[in-house]
Amino acid sequence: MAGFKVLSDAEIEQEIAALPGWERQGETIVRTYPIRYHAAVAAIVTIADRSRRIQHHADLDLRMDHLRASITTHDAGHRLTPADFDLARRIDEIVSAHQAIPLD
Questions:
Q1: Per-residue pLDDT tens over the stretch 61-102
Q2: Total structural domains in the chain?
Q3: What pTM does this model have?
Q4: Greatest Cα pair distance in the chain
C-alpha cells in the first residue's frame, strides 16, 4: 500500500458529507444516478477518458434508467483514499453535464 494515503473513518465521514448522493458501503463509495440510457452512455465515455488521464477508475453499472458508480482504490488494498473522493467529484460533474444535454 505504499504511495497511497488510506483514509481513517473520520476522514471518510468528512469527505462523504461533502458529496451529496454518495454513500459508504464498507471500503467503497457508491452513488446511483437516475439518468436516461443514452445520456449515461455518453457520460461513461467521458468518465473513461478522465479516468485514464488520472489513472484511477470507477466500477460503472449501466441500466436503462440509471448509472451506478462504485469507487475504491484497488492498489491500496481496496481501501478508501483521497483519490476516490476526487474521482467521485469528477463523476458528479460529468454526469451533471450529460443530464443537461437533451437527446431528443
A1: 999 999 999 999 988 989 999 999 999 999 999 999 998 655
A2: 1
A3: 0.91
A4: 48
φ, ψ for residue 57 (rounded to 5)? -125, 145
| The three grid cell numbers given for residue 75, joined into one nine-digit string | 492498489
Does residue 85 belong to any structural domain of this protein? Answer: yes
Give 23-49 pLDDT, tens digit per residue: 999 999 999 999 999 999 999 999 999
DSSP annotation of 62 reads E
d(CA 33, CA 36): 9
Backbone angles phi and psi of 3, in degrees to 5: 90, -10
* CATH number for position 33: 3.30.1360.20
Q: Report the distance separating Cα 73 and Cα 35, nearest Å.
A: 26
- State which residues form the domain around 71: 25-99
pLDDT of residue 32: 97
